[in-house]
């Protein structure tokens, strides 16, 4: 627990998707500025043993990033049947949170609250908290309908670039998720992986990636 400005406490709310890293980093900068506690929360209706590989990949990446940024706790609410906003309010009160960081797509990413938006409900139920709405990242998004379901894959470094493979060996350079383009017989699509504690997305064309030295954000 940090011992700086104990009048402040940051809670970052992330949902399974590409915007989580940006939100956590924003919360980390705020916590560093105030020298105060930082918590990261994610809520899911499914039990942990029903999560698919992509969701587990996101959670692992977020948890590692939160640890690197000095977060006091990474909170995962599995098998949660209550409205997400109720869980946020509960954690906010338990941790004495004073500032909440949300993505601007939280309403559509999580669920529509019957009476009012998530933001309005939070303003009513935890009126002592400041809300920070962060714009959606402009990173490459794997759009539903254009790509098949993600599968675990690896990048093997070769002369001039990297080759996509699906069998894990000691020669693999990166592990991540591959999204194959719909309607192609070749391994062409998008590969997502962690590099230097950041989520990177690169194009794969016929099994090969020419360069991954560029941050795709």
UniProtKB/TrEMBL annotation:
<dbReference type="InterPro" id="IPR006016">
    <property type="entry name" value="UspA"/>
</dbReference>
<dbReference type="Pfam" id="PF00582">
    <property type="entry name" value="Usp"/>
</dbReference>
<dbReference type="InterPro" id="IPR014729">
    <property type="entry name" value="Rossmann-like_a/b/a_fold"/>
</dbReference>
<keyword id="KW-0418">Kinase</keyword>
<protein>
    <submittedName>
        <fullName>K+-sensing histidine kinase KdpD</fullName>
    </submittedName>
</protein>
<feature type="domain" description="UspA">
    <location>
        <begin position="10"/>
        <end position="126"/>
    </location>
</feature>
<dbReference type="InterPro" id="IPR052023">
    <property type="entry name" value="Histidine_kinase_KdpD"/>
</dbReference>
<dbReference type="GO" id="GO:0016301">
    <property type="term" value="F:kinase activity"/>
</dbReference>
<keyword id="KW-0808">Transferase</keyword>
